[in-house]
Amino acid sequence: MERMKKVYEPKDFEERLYSHWMASGAFHPEIDPAKKPFTIVMPPPNVTGNLHMGHAMNNTLQDILIRYKRMAGYAALWVPGTDHASISTEVKVVERLAQRGITKEELGREKFLEEAWAWTEEYGGNIKNQLKKLGVSCDWDRERFTLDEDLSDAVLEVFVRLYEKGLIYRGHRIINWCPHDKTALSDAEVEHEEQDGKIWTFRYPVEGEDSFIEISTTRPETIPGDMAVAVHPEDERYQHLVGKMVRLPILDRLIPIVADEYVDREFGTGAVKITPSHDPNDFEVGARHNLGHRIIMDETATLNDEAGKYAGLDRYDARKAIIQDFTEGGFFVKEESHHNAIGHCERCKTVIEPLLSKQWFVEMKSLAEPALKAYTDGDLNIIPDRFGKIYSHWLENIRDWTISRQLWWGHQLPVYYCDDCGEVMVSKEEIHECTACGSSKVHRDPDTLDTWFSSALWPFSVLGWPKETADYEYFYPTDVLITGYDIIFFWVIRMVFSALEQTGKLPFDHVYLTGLVRDEEGRKMSKSLGNGIDPLDVIDEYGTDALRFTLCTGTAPGGDQRFIMKKVESNRNFCNKLWNAARFVLMNLPEDFQNATIDPARLISEDKWILAKLNRTITTVTEKLEAFEFGFAADTIHDFIWEDFCDWYIEMVKPRLYGEDTQDREEVYAVLIYVLEDILKLLHPFMPFITEEIWSYLPGRKEDLIVAQWPQLGPWEGTKEMADIAYVQEAIRALRNAKAEMDIEPFRKSPLYVRGSDERVALIQNEGRHFKTLANITQVEALEGELDEDALTVVLDGAELLLPMKDLVDYAKELERVARELEKAQDELQRAQRKLSNENFVSKAKAEVVQAERDKVEKYREMVEKLQERQGELQAKI
To answer: Within a 10 A sphere around the Cβ of 847, how many other Cβ atoms?
Structure first.
């Protein structure tokens, strides 16, 4: 039998094991009608990205689930893949071209796309290789990329279907415009940040009167685009002015005063300027009052000729110039501090500019309703449920989705225009001739689709849709999505309504939302703070399993977690503990040992205890994994391994391992191997490498752990033994603590005398071997009366344990310890007595609850009496 290495060193086997799993086909499930499928799709990271701690946590949780389901007998498929990331990739390629003194326009679309593909091929493998280092067991044979030919076909199919249903349209709308990236953004791509800004009040002269109306605005730079002043129809201050005209200062242009319920009478002066081409709310007001449009900014947020004398100025320079001109002209009233939320591009952080633009949109109302109904009807389970409110609110208040982007990298719109007659044509196939007039002067729309348009199809497009492939028929719909709460708008909602519209089914039943991984101080990890931690550096120093266990034990659904390196060190120590325990077990097996079967008739108390504890652990871990409570499941198996198996059971059975009773020794072998085997199975989803490596050394193993059967409950009840061993553990801990408080070295031996109830005395005598092994007791004897010599006394429920201390005891310290124990017992006694003196409690609480408090009174009263007696004895000796 091959021996395990003395020292746990993950670098010795992690890469080897991953290659072995890949070669064995363990990650690749076949379509099997006899098995139930379980499917996860990986949230596709940017193809040119690198693994960060958020990716590491998210993919660890997915891998835990898929490994568990694989072992539980499912055809478990985890589809990996990457996203083409249109904006971020294009920006990087443009920057690289700029270093060579070339613009994308000079290069042309075709050559630019060649450069983008070259960039993708150069950097696109990084994150895949990094994910492999993390141990993810996804099916790389089914890996997908959002620009794959068949996924691109699915994108075009959906666009054409929605267009033909009238759900995709082209129109002028106020869109979010990024002046830096020079493209439209959807609402979900805009991050609103709370900022301290300013609000300015100006006065506009009322035409034909010697009076003014004062307006307040946070964006003076848009004044050249004003088309009206609006007031609330019920605002008595301004009712007499409605219908009149005001002259726009400096620009000398007349605009009307209109009444509209949109106006907030409490904001500023209660009169607001209306700029329909540069504000979404003003756009609606303008449409209601037929005000028309005046676009005063270009795609770089520079004012154009429509802005008159301010043409050519950047928006912020224009703001300063307009404020100065209004001040010099006598139209400035005041400037005040103002706190508001400013929209920023989520990628480059530039302040977005609301802009009237002709774009392509998805009409959302009819798509949003089924997605909302799926949640409110309980068909879609969002974990944690507090995010369900956000999901609902977003769908209830959704606006049409801007899907066109002024980019070249991505899925080009399947839209064609006739240069002669203006016909608009939408088709999956390329069009070279106008379907209306027959002209050959046809050009394709240069814009591409929002990246999230293709990502929204991910759960079904990766399985072959729109073709009815075998994978699609068997593995769709998927079962659960695990992703960050920060993309619930970008991705989750869009996948739900896209799947319902295109496949008639929810894409998944459960959405598990993770939080952010923060640094030790609770700050978000970022380049600017320099507090980012590379997961690969952690893996290099501590091993993959220690990192994975840290990430899954420190998380609750939807909650942020702090990444603390000491926890990684602690989990590396846990790996060492398991390694050493397994090595100890295997070293003590005979050389020719193959396997052993537990004989229930030969089991003694500690065997029955560990087997019963194992059953409970299997039940709890399984239940918690099914409920997506990864942290609870991990903590449960950790505590069982560290405390029950390593610290107690192995120590308890060492004398039997080294004893002369051959049959008993073989029974210990059987129990140790049985428990170790199930421990490795339970821990495998969390720590795949160390468990698979240890598994390979177990005698008689014919299959890899990754495909072994999930632990089944054994016929071990062990209720009595669970209680008995728990009492023995309590007694041993109490003895150890009492000796430690007296500064008595742990290795000092002494006999143990026990007095108390017959049941407790018999129990401690029967389990005396454990006191000898674990508490350095030489013998255990029942005590009828008093002990002739002085003793260190430990009071338990139903028993007193006495250790003759002779000259080893510092009586002053012992008196202090007894005083502390007495104070604790008195506190517990008083607490129980207070409860029983409360008439409301006694009359309203359940009978068994009241009885439990009465039992406590008796228990602690007895403990107090004995401790007081001991206190008196010690005081007499000092």
So the answer is: 8
Contact 296, 306 (CB under 8 A): yes
What pLDDT is attached to residue 595? 78
Would you say residue 807 has pLDDT above 60?
no
Higher pLDDT, 155 or 357: 155
**CA dihedral of residues 246, 247, 253, 254 (deg, nearest 10):** 30
Asked if residue 218 lies in contact with residue 338, where contact means CB atoms within 8 angstroms, the answer is yes
Q: How confident is the model at residue 172 (pLDDT cuts 50, 70, 90)?
A: confident
Strand partners, 412: 448
- Residue 30 has a pLDDT of 96
Question: Phi and psi for 501 in degrees, rounded to 5?
Answer: -70, -40
**Residues 481, 41: contact at Cβ < 8 Å?**
yes
d(CA 235, CA 271): 10
* 825 CB burial (10 A radius; 0-12, 13-18, 19+): buried
Using CA atoms, how far apart are residues 286 and 389, in angstroms rounded to an integer?
33
Residues 227-262: tens digit of each pLDDT: 999 999 888 899 889 989 999 998 889 999 999 988
Distance CA 809, CA 816 (A): 12
The answer to whether 668 touches 653, Cβ cutoff 8 Å, is: yes
Gap between the Cα atoms of 666 and 658, Å rounded: 11
Does 877 have pLDDT greater than 80?
no
- Triad 351, 170, 314: Cα angle to 5°: 25
pLDDT, tens digit, 9 for 90 and up, residues 99-142: 999 988 899 999 999 999 998 988 888 888 999 999 999 999 99
Within 8 A by CB and 6+ apart from 235, the residues are: 263, 265, 270
* 810: region left, alpha or beta (phi > 0 left; psi from -120 to 50 alpha): beta
What separation in angstroms does the CA of 696 have from each of 12, 137, 391, 572, 803?
A: 14, 18, 46, 20, 46
Helix-helix angle 86-99:109-123, to 10 degrees: 100
Residue type, 854: R
**Phi and psi dihedrals of 176, rounded to 5?**
-85, 120
Q: Is residue 531 over pLDDT 60? A: yes
Is residue 482 a contact partner of residue 65, using CB atoms and an 8 Å limit?
Answer: yes
Residues in CB range of 546: below 8 A, 6 or more apart? 538, 568, 569, 571, 572, 574, 575
Q: What is the pLDDT of residues 413-427, one digit of tens each?
A: 999 999 999 999 999
The residue count for the chain? 878
pLDDT at 451 over 60: yes
What the block records as the tokens of 437 is 């007039």
